[in-house]
Design brief:
Its EC number is 2.4.2.7. The protein has 239 residues and is α/β, with parallel strands linked by helices. Helices cover 28% and strands 31% of the residues. It contains six helices and 14 strands.
Length: 239
């Protein structure tokens, strides 16, 4: 895997990157157990009170605190990034500037936050958007409008899978995979395998946020990874 941060690839000192980082709300030191329901309620309420109340799922992402004194998880709420129209536009524009001219015909977005960035990127570069979904059960499932193929993958605390509609991507098409955050790379790796199973050429994966400290755990099969910003680190916790 070739890891590339935007600031180290032609955007050093670009004020858009600072604006994007500052627009993401971060809450560190959340316990690993017992707070999923309150967090869900908090994120859902935040959406209800925002202009983005049409979205149906909470917008948070987990990270890890490595400090021996304070343990737990950090969640990174991109609701605030979406609410900041300038920072949101900066995010999309940077990706568009990178992928326009690469002959990309497929933008694959990972559910659900990858949908928000991926659709805008696809429209701007003239590509189709292909949703990679996370169903409750993969095996034997048929969607209301067609058959799907699935790819399972392991997470730190369990397993999950991605699904894609059969026929959505044709052999030989050039694709990129978009998500909001990469940590271990398990989800992106599954997305790559899913696209390659139908003969697509995965050119690159792009994420808004990336963690340097766990990059050795990423499993992207040698595919390039382009990251806009990395979390700030305070007291051993990504912040």
């Amino acid at each position: 895997m070739v890891e590339m941060f935007a600031a180290e690839n032609g955007l050093k000192g670009d004020p858009r990157l600072q604006a994007i980082s500052s627009a993401i709300r971060v809450v560190p030191h959340f316990p690993k157990q017992g707070l999923l329901l309150p967090l869900f309620y908090f994120s859902f309420l935040s959406l209800i009170l925002s202009v983005y109340d049409f979205l149906e799922r909470p917008l948070f992402k987990w990270g890890v605190c490595f400090s021996g004194k304070k343990t737990g998880i950090m969640f990174q709420d991109i609701t605030t990034l979406l609410l900041d129209n300038k920072a949101f536009k900066h995010t999309v524009d940077i990706f568009v500037d990178r992928y326009r001219g690469m002959d990309i015909s497929v933008v694959a977005g990972v559910e659900a936050r990858g949908f928000m960035f991926g659709t805008a990127i696809a429209l701007a570069i003239g590509a189709k958007f292909v949703p990679l979904r996370k169903p409750k059960s993969c095996q034997g499932r048929v969607c209301f409008n067609g058959e799907v193929i699935a790819e399972a993958y392991e997470l730190e605390y369990g397993s999950d899978c991605l699904e894609m509609h059969v026929g959505a991507v044709e052999a030989g098409e050039r694709a990129i995979v978009i998500d909001d955050l990469v940590a271990t790379g398990g989800t992106l790796s599954a997305a790559i395998r899913l696209l390659e199973r139908v003969g697509a050429q995965v050119v690159e994966c792009g994420c808004v946020i990336g963690l340097r400290q766990v990059k050795g755990q990423r499993r992207l099969n040698g595919k390039p990874l382009y990251i806009l910003v990395e979390p700030r680190e305070i007291d051993g916790c990504y912040y």
